[in-house]
Automatic annotation (TrEMBL):
Keywords: Repeat. This is Uncharacterized protein. GO terms for biological process: spliceosomal tri-snRNP complex assembly. It comes from Ignelater luminosus (Cucubano). It comes from the Eukaryota.
């Protein structure tokens, strides 16, 4: 089904990002290269590539790709939540605070995960910082 979807919508960054993690582990890198060729400036694809490096435990490359993602689309809350969760697991407290401060300055409003947390009726009074922390808890660690 994914192959058919990619034929019908070859420039859909969301589909390419999903297709990367549908592949078996050895084929993910090749699929990510294909995705970057088709949608090199799509934040969903860049986020998927940074998650791919996270799953491979390539810490510095992962940080670099999170920064690329957020340079293109600073309003993507999902990228902020993923990066913050990554720093909680692999970074120092300084790095966590830096991501948090940059996120608060960007004031993100988009992303599937971000919106599910921020628009949840239970979280109606959450600040951007609280939304970031709640969304980061919901991030699945890539394997």
């Amino acid at each position: 089904m994914m192959a058919k979807a990619l034929q019908e919508c070859p420039n859909s960054g969301f589909l390419w990002a999903e297709s990367i993690f549908l592949e078996a582990r050895p084929q993910r890198k090749a699929k990510s290269v294909d995705a970057l060729k088709k949608c090199e400036h799509d934040p969903q694809v860049l986020l998927a590539v940074s998650r791919l490096f996270w799953s491979e435990r390539k810490i510095s490359k992962c940080r670099e790709w999170f920064q690329r993602t957020l340079k293109i689309e600073p309003d993507l809350g999902d990228a902020w939540a993923n990066w913050y969760r990554f720093e909680q697991l692999h970074g120092t407290e300084e790095q966590q605070n830096e991501v948090k401060q940059r996120c608060l300055a960007a004031e993100p409003h988009h992303g599937e995960l971000w919106c599910s947390v921020s628009k949840n009726i239970k979280n109606w009074c959450f600040s951007a910082e609280q939304t970031l922390q709640a969304a980061a808890k919901e991030v699945e660690i890539p394997v």
